[in-house]
């Protein structure tokens, strides 16, 4: 008996994903500047939603405070680049481990809270980060600061090349985050995580150290979220406590994306991000009504299709885009 | 010295308001293990309803409570029976996400209806009246009324929980829902009554908040956090604990603000995190979460 991950749908899926990646990697040769910017923003949201999905959908840690790490990454980038003269790309690489390091004491504190109280506890931590950031006067205090033009210009010889560089960087980071999540889920620990997702008590009784697993996932997700945060604010070129630690932008949207697409499935956040951006492009003129509708859509999906849009598709046709499932295959079948 | 006594007294009095934020949150968590993320936004909603009532009928804010409290209680009952009851179950995610969505809906609905302008309820001369306690120590009449009301609300909830049939139903459902159902309790109704009561408390808190300071549609989440911190500091499930938690939070913020205006909120959060680190069950715990 051997364990097989792939199914016919995932074999098609992998080819499709590879094709899409090639098309996206070549986007600077076919897309206008606005298209590149929009795509780069989409990549950051796919990554943020996938990370939140890993945290909430698999490890059962429903955090509404991930903006803490987005903002931390952003502020660390500005601090390293402006105060220490570090190259922006190096600063993004540093933001990951630094966020993970910060996540350790945070986790030790808020893991004392259970369930929904954990959610609000994580939010308090993000508020503390926001208030602390507004006390840093060298980084603009409460009103924020812009990245000096000299640093931006030094990134690439021309404006066009800089745009390309940022685009490829965003794509690479999103692929890195998604690739890491897929690798994690295909590993032994991924099996344990999937077991925790399906039934925490049963998982514990088979010998999985659930608390330790959750702790590791929390720290790893902070790693990724910090890097994406640094990337987001390298593209925005301006940071302030209110934008960096914004609960709507970095948590509410991310949660809606994941819930609409399908929580607890790797494909969910990707589908959700596409739906989210299509809705946003179509309804952007509505202003606050648009947010109100997103809230309503998320409630409706949560009540009537709790596994999201991809959940409906996956259960109807038992599709999976990436080879994550485990099936036992007898020797006769493979032979 | 008198300056610090004044600061601490102000903190204690504002703590009463935080205790009212916390009491509603604690009540529904106790009865149905639901954490209402929209709690803060419902407080702001109550403030806006009071604004409409006071302007429409030309009555003062404290009198408007006679209308705002039943309106909010009704909203609570309908909200629970029409929506939130469907989210309850073993899974943690639905109630959390649905109330989170609700929070976004209320915030943006209020923004659409009332714009982002700051509003305030005018209570007239009572707003600036003070009483002298001793040499150099003055208390505002309104904060004192607010604190007395908060104590009365907590005492009332405590009495309701332990001396009435409804309170017995709350406790029974909290202890064991299936058995409570077997005994003939309609838990859907019990939950809806708990939410109605929670929103009645929210109505009182919302009116006092709106008289005390400016409000706009975006301030809800911070009120949720204050209420939540008071609950955790006081200890889950203890009504008088929430009052103690509110006071500790209020005093911490007042002391922080006195040292540096930028540290007001930070001081409150730090004290909360310190208590979470040192004594996660809170100061006066009753049930485990």
Task: List the secondary-structure elements of chain A in sequence, H or E.
Answer: EHHHHHHEHHHHHEHHHHHEH
Secondary structure tally: strands of chain A = 4
Can you tell me the CATH class of chain A? Answer: Mainly Alpha
Number of helices of chain B: 11
Biggest sheet layout of chain A = 2 strands, antiparallel
* Name of the CATH class of chain B: Mainly Alpha
CATH architecture of chain A: Orthogonal Bundle
The order of strands across the largest sheet of chain A is 1-4
Shape type of chain B:
globular
Oligomer: heterodimer
Into which percentage range does the β-strand content of chain A fall? under 5%
| Uncertain residue segments of chain A | none
Overall average residue pLDDT of chain A? 89
Count the DSSP helices of chain A.
17
Task: Tell me the distance between the termini of chain B.
Answer: 41 Å
What keyword list fits this structure?
heterodimer, A: 335 residues, mainly alpha, two-stranded antiparallel sheet, two-stranded antiparallel ribbon, 3% strand, B: 289 residues, ABC transporter involved in vitamin B12 uptake, BtuC, 11 helices
Write a structural description.
The complex is a heterodimer of chains A (335) and B (289). By secondary structure, chain A is mostly helical. Chain A has 17 helices and four strands. Chain A has one domain: ABC transporter involved in vitamin B12 uptake, BtuC. The radius of gyration of chain A is 20 Å and the shape is globular. Chain A is 75% helix and 3% strand. Chain A has helices at 8-25, 27-30, 33-58, 67-83, 88-110, 115-133, 149-154, 159-186, 188-198, 200-205, 210-236, 241-244, 247-261, 267-283, 288-304, 308-317, 331-334, and strands at 2-4, 145-146, 238-239, 327-329. The mean pLDDT of chain A is 89. Chain A has a two-stranded antiparallel sheet with strand order 1-4. In chain A, strands 2-3 form a two-stranded antiparallel ribbon. Chain B is mainly alpha-helical. Chain B has a single domain, classed as ABC transporter involved in vitamin B12 uptake, BtuC (Orthogonal Bundle), CATH 1.10.3470. Chain B is 73% helix and 3% strand. Chain B contains eleven helices and two strands; from the N terminus they run ααααββααααααα. Chain B has helices spanning 2-32, 39-57, 61-82, 93-114, 141-163, 165-175, 177-182, 187-212, 220-234, 239-259, 264-278; strands at residues 130-134, 137-140. In chain B, strands 1-2 form a two-stranded antiparallel ribbon. In chain B, helix 10 packs across helix 11. Chain B is globular. The mean pLDDT of chain B is 90.
């Amino acid at each position: 008996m051997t364990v097989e991950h792939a199914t016919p749908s995932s074999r098609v899926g992998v080819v499709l994903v590879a094709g899409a990646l090639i098309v996206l990697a070549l986007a600077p040769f076919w897309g206008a500047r606005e298209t590149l910017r929009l795509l780069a923003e989409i990549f950051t949201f796919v990554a943020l939603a996938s990370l939140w999905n890993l945290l909430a959908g698999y490890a059962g840690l429903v955090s509404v405070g991930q903006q803490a790490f987005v903002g931390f990454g952003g502020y660390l980038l500005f601090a390293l680049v402006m105060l220490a003269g570090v190259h922006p790309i190096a600063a993004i690489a540093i933001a990951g481990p630094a966020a993970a390091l910060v996540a350790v004491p945070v986790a030790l504190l808020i893991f004392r809270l259970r369930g929904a109280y954990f959610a609000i506890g994580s939010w308090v931590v993000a508020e503390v980060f926001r208030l602390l950031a507004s006390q840093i006067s060298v980084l603009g205090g409460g009103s924020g600061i812009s990245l000096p033009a000299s640093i931006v210009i030094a990134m690439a010889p021309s404006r066009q090349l800089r745009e390309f560089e940022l685009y490829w960087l965003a794509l690479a980071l999103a692929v890195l985050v998604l690739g890491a999540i897929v690798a994690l889920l295909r590993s032994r620990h991924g099996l344990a995580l999937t077991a925790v997702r399906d039934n925490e008590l049963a998982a514990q009784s088979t010998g999985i150290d659930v608390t330790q697993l959750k702790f590791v996932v929390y720290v790893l997700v902070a790693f990724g979220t910090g890097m994406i945060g640094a990337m987001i604010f390298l593209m925005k070129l301006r940071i302030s406590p209110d934008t960096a630690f914004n609960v709507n932008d970095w948590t509410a949207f991310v949660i809606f994306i994941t819930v609409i697409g399908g929580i607890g499935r790797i494909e969910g956040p990707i589908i959700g991000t596409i739906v989210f951006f299509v809705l946003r492009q179509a309804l952007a003129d509505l202003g606050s009504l648009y947010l109100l509708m997103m809230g309503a859509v998320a409630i409706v999906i949560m009540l009537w299709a709790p596994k999201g849009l991809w959940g409906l598709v996956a259960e109807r046709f038992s599709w999976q885009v990436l080879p994550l499932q485990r099936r036992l295959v007898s020797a006769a079948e493979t032979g | 010295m008198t300056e610090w006594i004044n600061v601490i007294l102000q903190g204690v009095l504002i703590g009463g308001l935080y205790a009212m934020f916390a009491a509603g949150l604690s009540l529904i968590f106790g009865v149905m293990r639901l954490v209402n993320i929209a709690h803060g936004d419902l407080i702001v909603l109550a403030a806006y309803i009071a604004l409409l009532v006071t302007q429409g009928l030309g009555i003062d804010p404290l009198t408007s409570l006679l209308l705002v409290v039943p309106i909010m209680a009704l909203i609570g009952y309908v909200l629970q029976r029409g929506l939130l009851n469907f989210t309850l179950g073993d899974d943690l995610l639905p109630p959390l996400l649905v109330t989170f969505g609700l929070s976004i809906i209320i915030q943006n609905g209020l923004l659409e209806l009332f714009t982002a302008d700051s509003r305030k309820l005018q209570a007239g001369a009572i707003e600036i009246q003070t009483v002298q306690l001793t040499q150099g120590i003055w208390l505002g009449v309104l904060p004192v009324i607010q604190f007395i009301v908060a104590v009365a609300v907590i005492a009332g909830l405590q009495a309701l929980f332990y001396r009435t049939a409804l309170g017995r139903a709350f406790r029974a459902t909290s202890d064991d829902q299936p058995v409570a159902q077997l005994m003939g309790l309609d838990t859907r109704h019990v939950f809806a009554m708990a939410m109605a009561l929670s929103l009645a408390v929210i109505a009182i808190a919302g009116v006092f908040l709106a008289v005390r300071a400016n409000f706009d549609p975006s301030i809800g989440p911070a009120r949720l956090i204050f209420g939540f911190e008071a609950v955790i500091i006081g200890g889950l499930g203890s009504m008088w604990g929430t009052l103690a938690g509110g006071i500790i939070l209020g005093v911490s913020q007042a002391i922080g603000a006195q040292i540096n205006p930028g540290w007001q909120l930070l001081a409150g959060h730090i004290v909360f995190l310190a208590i979470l680190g040192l004594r996660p069950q809170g100061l006066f715990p009753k049930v485990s979460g």
